[in-house]
From TrEMBL:
It comes from the Bacteria. It comes from Parasphingorhabdus cellanae. PANTHER family: GLYCOSYLTRANSFERASE WBBK-RELATED. NCBIfam families: stp1. InterPro entries: Sugar_tfrase_PEP-CTERM_Stp1. Keywords: Transferase. This is TIGR03087 family PEP-CTERM/XrtA system glycosyltransferase.
Amino acid sequence: MGEIIFLTHRVPWPPNRGDKIRSHHILRKLMEYRPVHLTCFADDEAEEAEESDIKASLASLQIIRRDKSNWLAGIEAVATGRPVSLTSFDSTKIHSYVQGILKARPIDCIFVFSGQMAQFVPADYNGRLVMDFADVDSAKFESYADDGTGPMAWINRREAKLLGAFETQVANRADYSLFVSEAEAQLFRQRSGLTKDKVKAVGNGIDFHFYDPSDVAAVELPHKGPLMVFTGQMDYRPNVEAVLSFSTDVMPQIIKRHADAQFAIVGRAPTDAVRKLDGLNGTMVTGSVDDIRSWIKAADVVVAPLRIARGIQNKVLEAMAMGKPVVASVAAAQGIDAVAGEHLCVANNPSEEAQFVCDLLSNREKAKLLGDSANRLIRSTYSWKTQLADMARLCGIEDDEIIEAAE
């Protein structure tokens, strides 16, 4: 029986943010079938020290602290003509680790999670290679460039061009390239010229036991007015832009009809720009919280007003799994197999977001029906078992191994 090397750009535990959720569940699935060697980066000492039951079951583990500064990564990128996304994650230790495992162990598959980790696959490796891009990152940088001006627009345009070329190069080499939604997969097929037999959609799932609305109490707030909630990592640019827009453009319209409405921005590491929203137009900024589910449970409406978004938004799936009515932008709803108006509200602009929220606050029966419909959809479609059903075969794992693992 062969073994697998799993490369990912962040420690895949705990599964508390979008990319880590996906890598965590894929890793667990592969560990059901084969010994897995994991190498990854940690953003800081706390993440490096995080415990998980996964550790003891891995064939080997290497965690590298990522401490290269942005300016040094930028200088290296300009000097080498490479994308900053690659130079900021480059590591001689990971290169050596992968080479060592390939020499010492019977590796027949390398699974790469996140494009920047593909640089660690040796040029002479000729075994199975599965590349999980999740999103088309180069398209994200194109969006940043289109929305920006001056030097940053140039930097983002350069990154989009170089990263796009790298993505296509990797995908041409890989046996399969995976994306989190059919929309992302189709976009990449158009950009790369590759076909459906090489570029596939493997969606995200939801841990139904964790996101069981009956298993958590709502956070208690002194304020008793209607509550809108946004969840996410609050130093991530699309999340920052989303809450800035909602607080300044949407909340004033909501307050005209619901004077005591509040908007909670719930998530770790809020930037200074996000913190300054606290107290503005009924906005509160919580920072990191003990249990994000308690805030979702307390919400009258969960909002996802992202102006730039790639793939599937876990924040939307989580809220829907907890039976909450969701108002999402077109970008945030993309990739979710849901019917607008039946499972969630999809708004084309800030004014529509305000209108949908106000309508749901004024009609609680309609809000409940929307949330209940969302809950049923997620539970019927978005289990991790369903989403990862074909993962073993993509990695070359034989049918008898799949049957044995199931037994």
